[in-house]
Specification:
single chain, 6 helices, 189 residues, 32% helix, two-stranded antiparallel ribbon, alpha+beta, 9 strands, 7-stranded mixed beta sheet
Amino acid sequence: MTPARPLSLASRSPQRRAILEQLGFDFAVVESSYREHHLPGTPAEVALTHARGKAGGAPAAELVLGVDTVVDVDGVLLGKPADRAEAAVMLRQLAGRSHHVHSGVCLLAGGVARERLATTEVSFRPLSDHDLAWYLATEEWRGRAGGYAVQARGAALVTRIVGDYTNVVGLPVAALLDLLGETGEIVRC
């Protein structure tokens, strides 16, 4: 399945690019003028607002995709850590418990916005000081919501995932395909 028209991805995320490439989509990465900032609301609401902003801030195109992924621990949003110390704090918060990963997905097709929210539950194993030091040393925490990358060495931190794995990576495929289907953009091969 691929979109009938080329997709403009309003994201620099290498994970999102990799997922679209795996799906065989024809797409181009475009720069959005939207900049993430602190917003009121639940983590899920913030993810949707940022996704909408990213799509709306991209250069005009027939099909624009904006996505934002956040980590939610008891209603508290964990974004991307600013530094190693903040990554350590986030990972300690996640250790030995479950949290939710929310991705807001906004697809602009012909100037009409359609949105989906994907939520996945992720459980971490307890982390020793040694585990934490090892993971921080990998530098994978950089630029990652919640300070981890489940598709790489961060898989060693996780004991269970309930829901869409691709959502935790950064682009919920099922939500994207639903939106493309609503617009009539899906071409079945």
